[in-house]
């Protein structure tokens, strides 16, 4: 949609919540929560154009942390149950890619993760409240506030293509204690103190 983030040109700009490198941070947090973590999964919507980027980042992050990572593709909600069935072969934790379909079906994905006793890490407050164990991602409120600044500039005459696509600068770490208990884990007290919010 844009020529580059710094110089979009055309008639499009915006505030992005894209932060594929956060996969590594989510995996690091999982290592603190899941005892003996060695096998993790990435649930990836094959229809999303950005999926290949997330797969590459996931593979690099798992290798860097000494973990075995497997990708589990899906294209429609009908393919979620088979994907979770496939994860039963030793997967200990699960990360989802932040895309529209994963957001739309966040309640189903969270329910399947809990039923499979798989700790699930997501990227937003909304996906955490659906039943994920934890979330580490861009602060949605901060993004909305910055979007208002952009709207103001455009209404005052700045061309969208002259405004860089902003990357997130403020992040939040959230833990869902109800889900922690549902999947049979304990969160180290020090990790709880590092969370921006603990939801019970």
Description:
- There is one protein chain.
- The chain starts with 21 loop residues before the first helix and ends with a strand.
- The chain is an alpha/beta fold.
- The protein has a domain at 22-138 and 175-193: 3-Layer(aba) Sandwich (Rossmann fold), CATH 3.40.50.2300.
- It contains nine helices and seven strands, in the order H-E-H-E-H-E-H-H-E-H-E-H-E-H-H-E.
- It has helices spanning 22-33, 51-64, 80-87, 100-104, 106-115, 125-129, 140-155, 177-182, 189-194; strands spanning 39-45, 68-74, 93-96, 120-122, 134-138, 171-176, 197-199.
- Strands 2-1-3-4-5-6-7 form a seven-stranded mixed beta sheet, sandwiched between helices.
Brief digest:
The protein has 200 residues and is of the alpha/beta class. It is built from nine helices and seven strands, in the order αβαβαβααβαβαβααβ. The radius of gyration is 18 Å and the shape is globular.
Structural shape: globular
* CATH top level class name of one domain: Alpha Beta
Strand pairing plus helix content: what structural class? alpha/beta
Order of strands across the biggest sheet? 2-1-3-4-5-6-7
Instruction: Work out the strand percent.
Output: 15-25%
CATH superfamily of one domain: Response regulator
* Largest sheet entry: 7 strands, mixed
Uncertain parts: none
């Amino acid at each position: 949609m844009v020529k580059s983030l710094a110089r979009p040109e055309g008639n499009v700009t915006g505030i992005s919540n894209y932060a594929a490198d956060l996969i590594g941070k989510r995996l690091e947090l999982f290592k603190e929560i899941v005892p003996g973590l060695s096998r993790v999964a990435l649930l990836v919507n094959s229809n999303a154009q950005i999926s290949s980027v997330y797969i590459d980042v996931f593979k690099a992050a798992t290798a860097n942390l000494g973990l075995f990572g497997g990708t589990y593709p899906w294209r429609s909600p009908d393919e979620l149950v088979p994907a979770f069935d496939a994860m039963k072969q030793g997967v200990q934790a699960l990360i989802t890619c932040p895309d529209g379909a994963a957001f739309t079906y966040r309640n189903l994905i969270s329910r399947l993760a809990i039923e499979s006793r798989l700790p699930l890490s997501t990227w937003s407050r909304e996906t955490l409240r659906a039943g994920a164990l934890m979330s580490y991602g861009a602060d949605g409120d901060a993004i909305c506030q910055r979007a208002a600044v952009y709207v103001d500039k455009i209404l005052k005459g700045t061309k969208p293509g002259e405004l860089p696509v902003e990357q997130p600068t403020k992040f939040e770490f959230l833990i869902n204690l109800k889900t922690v208990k549902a999947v049979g884990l304990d969160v180290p007290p020090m990790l709880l103190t590092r969370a921006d919010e603990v939801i019970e």
